[in-house]
Amino acid sequence: MSKHSFIIDHHGGAAVFLCTQCEPEAQLYVHARHFLDNALAPLQVVMDIRDNSDGRQAIERSLPNDRTDREGMMTRIDDKFATLQAAGKKAFVTYIMAGDTDYDTSLEVMRGLPAAGVDVIELGLPFTDPVADGQTIQLAGQRALDAGQTLKKTLAMAKTFREDDTTTPIVIMGYYNPIYSMGVDKFLTAAVDAGVDGLIIVDLPPEEDAELCLPAKEVGINFIRLATPTTDAKRLPKVIENTSGFIYYVSMNGITGTATAQVNAVAPEVTRIKQATDLPVVIGFGVKTPEAAKTFADLGDGVVVGSAIVERIGRGDAPADVLAFVKTLADAAHS
Amino acid sequence: MNDLFNSFMTGPDENGRFGDFGGRFVSETLMPLILALEEQYEHAKTDETFWAEMHDLWTHYVGRPSPLYHAERLTEKLGGAKIYLKRDELNHTGAHKINNVLGQIILARRMGKTRIIAETGAGQHGVATATVCAKFGLKCVVYMGAHDVERQAPNVFRMKLLGAEVIPVTSGRGTLKDAMNDALRDWVTNVDDTFYCIGTVAGPHPYPAMVRDFQSIIGKEAKEQMMAAEGRLPDTLIAAIGGGSNAMGLFFPFLDDKDVNIIGVEAGGKGVNAKMEHCASLTGGRPGVLHGNRTYLLQDDDGQILEGFSISAGLDYPGIGPEHAWLHEIGRAQYVSITDVEALEAFQLCCDMEGIIPALEPSHALAHVIKIAPTLPKDHLIIMNMCGRGDKDIFTVAKALGFEMGDFA
């Protein structure tokens, strides 16, 4: 690890870290909302640089003044929403289960998602006891586990995807135990290395932020929280407090892939959340069709479709057919 | 009395933790519900009218106090420690489960909930919940693993007679863990009118503490009864553990009596070995997060939960209450395991020597008594919690012993 001195300047949509000692090719392009928003004049900072295992350099995430979370490093997720917002478009987010129906199939689908119009990929982490999920995703997790999927393989999948795609955010979504079992520090190091941008861990409410949410923020990974119809006005600030990237509004009380989301119920809730935060609000649970994708995307800043896609993978549709369906959803959400 | 700074009875902390165990690992949808329950319970804890209602029902509906019975022939046969059985199998519905259900249903009524859901393994908690719901005119839905529905058929019929809807759960291997998953899925879907009545000292805070407090009537009575019978405290307490509610109920009032040995008995299934054909979470598992709490779990290298195996449906759970995990780590209680074969032998010995048909769950505890009693002096006092009766298990036992029920004609 070596100390480098940087001049931070604006360059197009990103901030450029110009190292005062290194060759020009060693410059690091870092998406840092804080610097874009606040650094009117170039800043000079000193940071640690370390070599990754693959020889590429990464910034040790310890920015000066401890601005290491959403006030500091701008993540791919922040970037993506900023870009979409600038273009007046809504985000289309999809969920697929890593390793479903096997590693190669899910990697093939994942690689095709950006071209099909997907803005953010939620990569499901299979778990034996997914208590927030309906049967479609339960079965997908079971198929993945039966095919030998593990947390390590899911991270490997993200890393392989990242080799060809450096802009589409990857959010790992699942339950805490596989991560706890690996060890939080080890997991976060591997997740940063794999190019993972965010986490949605269903069974970690704000009351358990010390477990993973705060350590994730420290390494620059967004911890995306679910807000639900039971999140009342008193509780909402607590839910928002350590959330970054975006807020995932769960359209109904219930599990994934069962009932159909209702516009009348969702619209006022999204308004309420948007009044409480500047973070993008994305709506999920119970969105199954292109029409619904458009309707709910328009209510907030984006929409998530999961079970409807997973169901097609599960019944054995070819990846190309799955991606064609995804495109109809994406086109509708973007229209 | 107890020194607050040197007591084992002060947990959990405000975050629902016993040491590092416990907590509130639930989805956001459920958080407001468990916080509301915690508030209600905190209020009830010091509310005299609440406890007056509990004691009235315990006395007149359940039949408490349950006797502390000196098992004389068993003591003589084993030739060592003096064995007492805490007879919670004599409770209405045939197990300790109803002690806790009454408490939770009274809270549910106070919270205005009209629909009660429960998970059940052996069916004893399901029967107790169905019973109390019938008594109070509440709708009752019980989730039960499909495999357990099959091996505990008499209890399924009892629940149906009591007006409960029994939903067989086919996900996973169809046992208690899977039933709890589906109960949680129900709760997250029906948040307004539904109360989740958990049957053991597990789940998110405040369940482990609340269920322990309701079950502690077992230990409180046993302490008084032993003082009356022998003029002193017992030397050893022994209880079977699945989730661990009967054990926690017996153990808790004795935690600060440091001369009292405390032993929990886990289900060793076919043996605590690498094949994981057992349910001994403390002996064969490691810490993890499941069903709202951090505790010892049976899991693989990837953190996937293993199914476990036991002849006893009530012990067939890959986790254990977080307070037990803590007592294990700090060394206040000792945890051992007993195999199916040992439990079956104890089951038969109890029928034979004491005229008591025990459930398969306390048969595990009894098997450990049989192991250690002969090695202890005659003035060593053991209390074993006879937490359930074995009527429900006769088909399972008959099958294990190679009897065909039709053969007796």
From TrEMBL, chain A:
InterPro entries reported in the protein's UniProt record: Aldolase_TIM, RibuloseP-bd_barrel, Trp_synthase_alpha_AS, Trp_synthase_suA
- Top-rank taxon of the source lineage equals Bacteria
Q: Where is the active site?
A: E122, D133
In terms of Pfam families, this protein maps to: Trp_syntA
Keyword terms of this UniProt record: Amino-acid biosynthesis, Aromatic amino acid biosynthesis, Lyase, Tryptophan biosynthesis
GO CC annotations? cytosol
> Which CDD domains does the record match to this protein?
Tryptophan_synthase_alpha (cd04724)
GO molecular function annotation: tryptophan synthase activity
What pathway or pathways are given for this protein in its record?
Answer: Amino-acid biosynthesis; L-tryptophan biosynthesis; L-tryptophan from chorismate: step 5/5
Family annotation (PANTHER family):
TRYPTOPHAN SYNTHASE ALPHA CHAIN, CHLOROPLASTIC (PTHR43406:SF1), TRYPTOPHAN SYNTHASE, ALPHA CHAIN (PTHR43406)
Q: Which family does the record assign?
A: Belongs to the TrpA family.
- NCBIfam families referenced in this protein's UniProt entry, alphabetically: trpA (TIGR00262)
Family annotation (HAMAP family): Trp_synth_alpha
Task performed by this protein: The alpha subunit is responsible for the aldol cleavage of indoleglycerol phosphate to indole and glyceraldehyde 3-phosphate.
Q: Kindly state the subunit structure of this protein.
A: Tetramer of two alpha and two beta chains.
Name it: Tryptophan synthase alpha chain
This protein's species is Yoonia ponticola
From TrEMBL, chain B:
Which cofactors, by name?
A: pyridoxal 5'-phosphate
Q: Where is the Tryptophan synthase beta chain-like PALP domain?
A: 63-388
Q: Which GO terms describe its cellular component?
A: cytoplasm
Reactions it catalyzes: (1S,2R)-1-C-(indol-3-yl)glycerol 3-phosphate + L-serine = D-glyceraldehyde 3-phosphate + L-tryptophan + H2O
The record's GO molecular-function terms, alphabetically, read:
tryptophan synthase activity
- Tell me which UniProt keywords the record has, alphabetically: Amino-acid biosynthesis, Aromatic amino acid biosynthesis, Lyase, Pyridoxal phosphate, Tryptophan biosynthesis
Q: List every position bearing N6-(pyridoxal phosphate)lysine.
A: K97
> EC no.?
4.2.1.20
This protein's source sits in the domain of life called: Bacteria
A Pfam family recorded for this sequence: PALP
Per the record, the pathway is: Amino-acid biosynthesis; L-tryptophan biosynthesis; L-tryptophan from chorismate: step 5/5
Family indicated by similarity: Belongs to the TrpB family.
Q: How does it assemble?
A: Tetramer of two alpha and two beta chains.
**Function in brief:** The beta subunit is responsible for the synthesis of L-tryptophan from indole and L-serine.
Read off the PANTHER family from this record. TRYPTOPHAN SYNTHASE, TRYPTOPHAN SYNTHASE-RELATED
- Report the protein name in the record: Tryptophan synthase beta chain
Q: Which gene encodes it?
A: trpB
